[in-house]
């Protein structure tokens, strides 16, 4: 089994860590398939198996193997992942490596996410980026990725370091079971404010342990993101493509597109939301 230790941070942002530096690959495969395992441990083991399969059987086959039946890729419009990936073949000489650094899980154990650094090698060239993967548990108990949409790779002089453990974020509080979910209102309100004032308002909506994922900067925690200067993009339209909410109504993802003023090309967004006592709070915001 994986080695689990308490995570002690100055602000108590994480509940514990899961170390996979001592987790053999064969154990990761076994844990990913173990129905009785803790949901977050099993999701992380599935992520590790996914990353290992990218080396073992190839990038495109690994993405197909670990996709949920209703998995989505944004290229840039949302499309069924298995259809998009059906004809994909790997570019010769390209190698993709990644490890999760942070994970979150719903109280109902059916929806979670992982994020962490990745590195892409093509010949002598190396590029680095950050992943953001939304995971869903199927009726058969298996985890598959619903949405895999990280930051675009940036050319680098050296490959990014990969973590040896993943920090697990605290869980939220069950939300009211209403349809449509209240997270739709939260996402719409944030989009309206972004259109009115620009993307610089987003960090102010983050939970205390939240963070943004941005090109050139990677993962930026709330305090640093709020203080950032020059990151305000003016938005003309914001379109939500879809969402997924946990059965406990405590964790959700929304995703869509932001269209910017002027010549700036449009970009997709992916958000992770957590329901707390005060309502839905933004936990992760990616613009790519």
From TrEMBL:
It comes from the Bacteria. Keywords: Signal. This is DUF4440 domain-containing protein. Residues 1-32 form the signal peptide. It comes from Sphingopyxis terrae subsp. terrae NBRC 15098. The lineage of its organism: Bacteria, Pseudomonadati, Pseudomonadota, Alphaproteobacteria, Sphingomonadales.
């Amino acid at each position: 089994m994986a080695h689990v230790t308490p995570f002690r941070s100055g602000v108590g942002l994480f509940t514990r860590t899961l170390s996979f530096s001592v987790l053999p690959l064969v154990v990761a495969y076994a844990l990913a398939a173990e129905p009785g395992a803790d949901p977050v441990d099993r999701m992380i083991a599935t992520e590790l198996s996914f990353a290992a399969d990218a080396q073992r059987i190839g990038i495109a086959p690994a993405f197909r193997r670990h996709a949920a039946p209703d998995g989505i890729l944004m290229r840039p419009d949302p499309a069924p992942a298995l259809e998009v990936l059906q004809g994909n073949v790997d570019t010769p000489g390209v190698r993709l490596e990644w490890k999760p650094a942070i994970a979150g899980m719903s109280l109902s154990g059916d929806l979670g996410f992982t994020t962490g650094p990745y590195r892409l090698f093509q010949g002598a060239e190396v590029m680095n980026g950050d992943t953001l993967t939304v995971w869903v548990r199927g009726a058969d108990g298996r985890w598959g990725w619903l949405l895999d949409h990280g930051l675009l790779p940036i050319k680098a002089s050296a490959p990014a370091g990969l973590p040896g453990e993943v920090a697990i974020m605290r869980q939220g509080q069950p939300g009211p079971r209403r349809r449509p979910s209240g997270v739709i209102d939260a996402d719409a309100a944030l989009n309206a404010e972004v259109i009115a004032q620009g993307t610089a308002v987003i960090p102010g909506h983050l939970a205390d342990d939240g963070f943004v994922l941005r090109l050139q900067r990677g993962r930026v925690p709330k305090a640093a993101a709020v203080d950032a200067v020059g990151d305000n993009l003016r938005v003309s339209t914001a379109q939500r493509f879809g969402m997924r909410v946990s059965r406990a109504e405590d964790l959700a993802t929304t995703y869509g597109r932001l269209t910017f003023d002027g010549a700036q090309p449009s970009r997709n967004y992916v958000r992770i939301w957590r329901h707390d006592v005060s309502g839905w709070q933004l936990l992760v915001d990616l613009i790519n």
